Every structure is written in C-alpha cells, then in structure tokens.
C-alpha cells in the first residue's frame, strides 16, 4: 500500500475524477473487463473534486496546463496563461507564413496545428535514460538509470523553460523565443535537443557503472 | 532469616502497573440486576408501566429529574445498561494454578495470532480442495466475488472483535492473508468464514436527494443550487428555455470574470452535459478570491443542473468531480515555523 508522504485533505479512498466526455459515452459492450471493474469501483467510492485547471472543453489540455504551471512565477497564473496563448498564436502565425510561401507539393507536409507541434516537440525533447549520483566507496559516480514517464516529461519541459529564460536577448519576448524553440525542437534541431543528446552520450560513456544501480 | 530492606515507596501498591480496572463477572451481574431494579423504580416514579420502559424513556426521565447545564453530553448524569458503561474486557486468562488457558498466551497477542492461524488453516484447506479437483480432472469454479460492493473490517472494528490492540503492520498482514484466500479459485468453500470479516458498502453513492423542478410566474422551470470553495459562498438559479446568458451579482460574466480560466470553469457543467445555449443563470457570490468564487459558482450550477438531467447523467457528473465540495483550504501557520510548511532560515551559529 502506498502511504502518502505529504497528507492531502481528501480521504485516501477518494478516486481521481475523469473529465473527458467521450469516456462516458462508450456503450457497455465495448469495455474490457478491467474497465468494467473500474466502473463498478467508481460507482461505490467517493470522487475528488475536479481541479480548476481541468475542464471538459476542447481547449483544455493537461500537458499545456502543466507547462503553464511550470512557467508560472509567484502564483501569477494569468500572466503565464497569456504567455502560453501568445506562444501558440506565434507558432500558428509562423507556420501559416511558411505554408503560404511554400510550393504546392510541400504544402501538405507543413504542420499548422500548434497543439500537435507542442506535443511533438516535447516528445522529441524527452530523454530516454538519465544519470543519477550514487556514492560507493567514498566516490560519487554518475550512473545511467531508466527514467519514468513523468520524470521524462518534467525534464523536457524544464529544459525548454530554462533555455528560453536564460538564452534570450534582452529585447525578445518570452512567447517569441518559446515559439522559436518549439519549432526547432519539432524539427529535431536546437539547443534543447542538443542537451538531450549530450545526456545520452554521457550515459553511454558511463555505461561501465550501470551495475551500481540496485533498483 | 533474611532481612529484606525496602523503602516505603516500594511497599505502596503500584496502581499504574496493574493496567485498567478489571471487573469480575459477578460484579457485572450485580450491576445488571441493580440497573433493572432501578429501571422499575424509575418507571414507578414517572407513573409509567415498568414492563414497557425503553432506554429512550429512561434518558428522558433522567433529563427531567436531573437537569444539567453542562455542555459535554458525556458529563451529564446518565443511566445506561452496564454493558455499555463498563467496556468489554478480556476475562482473566489463567486458572487458579497460574497456567494460562490459551496455548498462545505468551506471544502477547493470543487472539490475533490464533486468528492468523485459523485463516491460514482455511487457506490450506482451499488449496487441498483445489489439488483434489485437479487430480480428478474436474474444472475449477471461477466465479468472481463482487469486490466493489464489500469492504474489509477496519482496524478499529477488528480491535473490537478481538478485544486487544492490533498494530498497523499486523492489520495489513491480516488483510494480505484474507486477500490471498479470496484470490484462490475455490474460495467459495470458506465463504461463511470470509463473510465474518467483510462488510457491505452501499452499492450506489447516490445518497443525495435530487429536488424536483420549480416553476416561476411566467411558467419557466428553474432550480437553485448552493456551492462553496475555500471562503467563497455562491447560490445559483438556473432557468430553462434560455439563451445562455450568465449574470453574477447583477454583472455579466464578461465583466465580472475577465480571466478566461474562470469563465471556462463556469461553463464546465453546461459543456459537460451539452446544454450550453439552453439555460440562463443568475448567481450571487460573496467571499473568497477570483478562482474561489468561480469554483463555488461551478459547484452551485452543477447542483442546480441535477434537477434538469437524468440519473445516469448525474452519476457521470459525480464521476467527473463536478458535484464534490473541494475540501482544500488554506493551511494554518505553525509555531516555530514561518508559514504552514516553510521553516525559519537555518543559521549554523
């Protein structure tokens, strides 16, 4: 059983809410056994309240809200959200410019949907393997270690944000720089992808210490 | 002859070491007789029939004869059956020669370990039965028990059953054994034994009553709902045959909630049910901040929409988290720390 390290105001028997409308419109026959058990369990147990960042509308995306939260400084969600929407707008504008200038045969390959670009860029930035410090016999070694999905997503988002905050010129706005980085990451170029490759190479170089890991 | 030198302090009876007061069976019997006699006397005093004098009548009589202004109900004079007053205790577990009755007495928790032994015995029985069926090439029964409708006894209920303390670790071991027993395909043999430790959970959590629709002077159906979040309290009135206009405290939502996120939250219940342009809403809200007010109105509108919608959709709304009150509030500041979690700056000297 998992004991919560930091306590939450909810009783541990409360389950997470399911916001998407489509999951409630599936007829009974299509569900697998596990889903049926889940449904029965949900009918009996109480359910937590949906957080204010989540909504069933088409425009709410959990990844985008996570990214907005990470960009937020001292609780200023309004500013973070406006920056995010300006970024997506900037991506769309750049892609549309490219689309109108391109010749006929290349028009289909250019991706205009900013959400797809965002997701693909994040996926391209995610490292596969990470390094962790393990102390053995007085010396600390950097040992290659597999990463969980959550950790990969977090690292990708963190790298993007730090990259945009530190390496931009004084006059460029954050949305502009972010949209630039996202487009580069979408095409597998740019400093964030380079950082990911550097990490992979370090992990490959420290391959000899992989047996130090005990989990 | 040996002179044993002791101080007066040691010769005094060690009251703390002997544990809680132990009552003999004869004492409890006497208390029950006295209680019954007292009940008849009380009935005579109140002028009622001694044969049909229930516990409620006793409580009323005592409250009438001995009025008390004390706030704590437990501190007021009461007359209850001795089994409720004296906690159920283990009878003394050893005979006159000092030899304990139970073979596991010296483990310290005899009833817990004997329970574990019994459960394991049942498990071995089930496994033997399975092996027999396999040897005879008969098919194993695979009827799954309905796990969602029942729950195991809690630790406190188990303590009451065994009359001794059960630690967290012991309790989790016991539950693991029970789960293992239930997971066996032929666990139906020991159904009776398992039912002693499982309790029914009310199958549907729809214990809330859905109010019917009310109609105002023009004949338009409407319903009200109340919601709260942190310190904000909101009431919402949802009208039918509307155009989708939402008014908060007399102001349109575009002016009251300039932030997109709050407006999204207001429209969330309507969008979930697919009824965006069909309802009008008038709400009043006070207290809290921007997001808290939005959350409170969301809850109030979801509760109001319950009357317009079928039961299945109400269940879907509940599973989407629209109908639960958010219990998260601001955590208090603790002494010795700067905030609820932040500690003071650590200085080495």
TL;DR?
With 215 residues, chain A is mainly alpha-helical.
Radius of gyration of chain B: 32 Å
CATH architecture of the largest domain in chain B: 2-Layer Sandwich
Number of alpha- plus pi-helical segments of chain B: 12
Unreliable stretches covering 5 or more consecutive residues of chain B = none
Q: Please, what is the average pLDDT of chain B?
A: 86
Structural class of chain B: alpha+beta
Fraction of residues in helix of chain B:
25-40%
Largest sheet of chain B: 6 strands, mixed
List the helices and strands of chain A in order.
HHHHHEEHHH
Number of helices, counting only DSSP H or I runs of 4 residues or more of chain A: 8
Structural class, judged by helices and strands of chain A? mainly alpha
Largest interface: A-B, 30 and 37 residues
Overall tally of domains of chain A: 1
Calculate Rg of chain A over CA atoms: 22 Å
Report on this model:
The complex is a heterodimer of chains A (215) and B (349). Chain A has helices at residues 22-25, 33-44, 62-71, 77-101, 114-125, 149-166, 174-186, 191-205, and strands at 129-136, 139-146. With 215 residues, chain A is mainly α. Chain A has a single domain (62-212), classed as Orthogonal Bundle (Ribosomal Protein S7), CATH 1.10.455. Chain A has a two-stranded antiparallel sheet with strand order 1-2. In chain A, strand 1 and strand 2 form a beta hairpin. Chain A is globular. The model of chain A has no long low-confidence stretch (mean pLDDT 88). Chain B has 349 residues and is an alpha+beta fold. Chain B has three domains: 25-85, no CATH class; 105-200, no CATH class; 214-320, 2-Layer Sandwich (Ribosomal Protein S5, domain 2), CATH 3.30.230.10. Helices cover 40% and strands 11% of the residues of chain B. Chain B has twelve helices and eight strands. In chain B, the strands form two sheets. In chain B, strands 3-4-5-8-6-7 form a six-stranded mixed sheet. Chain B has a two-stranded antiparallel sheet with strand order 1-2. In chain B, strand 4 (221-229) and strand 5 form a beta hairpin. In chain B, helix 10 runs parallel beside helix 11. The longest helix of chain B has 26 residues, at 110-135. The radius of gyration of chain B is 32 Å and the shape is extended. Chain B starts with 7 loop residues before the first helix and ends in a 30-residue tail after the last helix. The model of chain B has no long low-confidence stretch (mean pLDDT 86). The interface between A and B is medium-sized, with 30 and 37 residues.
